[in-house]
Design goal:
Blueprint lengths: L1 H19 L3 E10 L3 E10 L4 E10 L3 E11 L8 E14 L4 E13 L7 E10 L8 E16 L2 E14 L3 E15 L1
Antiparallel strand pairs: 1-2, 1-10, 2-3, 3-4, 4-5, 5-6, 6-7, 7-8, 8-9, 9-10
Pfam family, one: YfaZ
InterPro entries: YfaZ (IPR009998)
Protein name: YfaZ
């Protein structure tokens, strides 16, 4: 319980810092569900820059909980509106079931592609990997992977079905925190 309170405080602090920064040019809220887990993330582009900032969390009934904050470089001109992509990383603070609290700095990025000729259908992927040099405590490596097929139901909203895989490798064990089909939505503002 103490760990959950600490993680909640850290998430609130990260969100407060993100919102204290100068104006944002819009953003999105992303929610993904399985029968046993929920994942949420808020992302926003800092006005006049190529900076895309995220803050999010994940909770599983049996396998643990996690908060994260990310920074990505994106195309500020949006020269290809059917493609949104970012390159950067996320810092993760998490507690896998049966393990100590861990920190990982995952490098990677995301891409969302919605070609006009598919009438609202699109694909999305995000992947972040932390090798041992960016994995702390007894953590050896960390992987966060999301793959989705999405459909535009509103100009500002998409539904998706996807696959989530979160894995933390420790010196003496492997914690598969999530490996499941997900359903969810993303709303842009």
């Amino acid at each position: 319980m103490r760990m959950l309170k600490s993680m909640t405080r850290a998430a609130v602090a990260a969100l407060a810092l993100a919102w204290a920064a100068p104006a944002f040019a819009g953003g999105s809220v992303d929610v993904a569900l399985t029968h046993e887990s929920i994942r949420g993330e808020h992302g926003a582009v800092r006005a006049g820059t190529a900076a895309y900032l995220t803050v999010g969390g994940w909770y599983h009934l049996d396998n643990g909980q996690m908060i994260n904050a990310g920074f990505h470089a994106i195309d500020p001109q949006n020269s290809r509106p059917e493609l949104v992509a970012g390159l950067g990383g996320k810092t993760y603070l998490f507690k896998a079931s049966g393990e100590d609290t861990s920190v990982a700095i995952g490098l990677g990025g995301f891409a969302r592609y919605q070609p006009p000729n598919l009438n609202g259908f699109g694909g999305e992927v995000q992947a972040y990997y932390a090798p041992q040099v960016l994995a702390f405590s007894s953590l050896d490596q960390f992987l966060d992977l999301q793959v989705r097929v999405s459909y535009e139901v509103l100009p500002q909203g998409r539904l998706f079905v996807g696959y989530s895989h979160i894995q933390a490798d420790y010196s003496d064990s492997v914690a598969e925190m999530d490996s499941a089909l997900t359903l969810g939505f993303r709303v842009r503002y």
